[in-house]
Amino acid sequence: MEKRVTFKGWILPLCLLLPQVVVTAAFFFYPAGQAIWQSMFIPDPFGLKTQFVGLGNFEYLFGDRYYRAAFGTTAVFSGLVTLVSMTVALYLALLADRLIKGSGVYRTLLIWPYAVAPAVAGVLWLFMFNTRVGVVSWYLGVLGYDWNHVLNQTEAMGLVVAASSWGRISYNFLFFLAGLQAIPRSVIEAAAIDGAHFWTRFRTIVFPLLSPTTFFLLVVNVVYAFFETFGVIHTITSGGPQQATTILVYKVFADGFVGQDLGSSAAQSVVLLALVGILTVIQFRFIERRVHY
Amino acid sequence: MPGMVEKRGIGHWMTHLGLILGVLVIFFPIWLAFVASTVTQPEIVHPPMPLWPGDQFYNNYRQALLSGVNAPVAKMLLNSLIMALGIAGGKILISLLSAFAIVYFRFPGRRLFFWLIFLTLMLPVEVRIVPTYQVIAGFGMLNSYSGLIFPLIASATATFLFRQFFMTVPDELVEAARVDGAGPMRFFWDILLPMSRTNIAAIFVILFIYGWNQYLWPLLITTDPSMNTIVMGIKQMFPSGDDIAEWPVIMAASILAMLPPIFVVISMQRLFIRGLVDSEK
Question: Could A35 and B128 be called an inter-chain contact, meaning their C-beta atoms sit closer than 8 Å?
Answer without folding.
Answer: yes
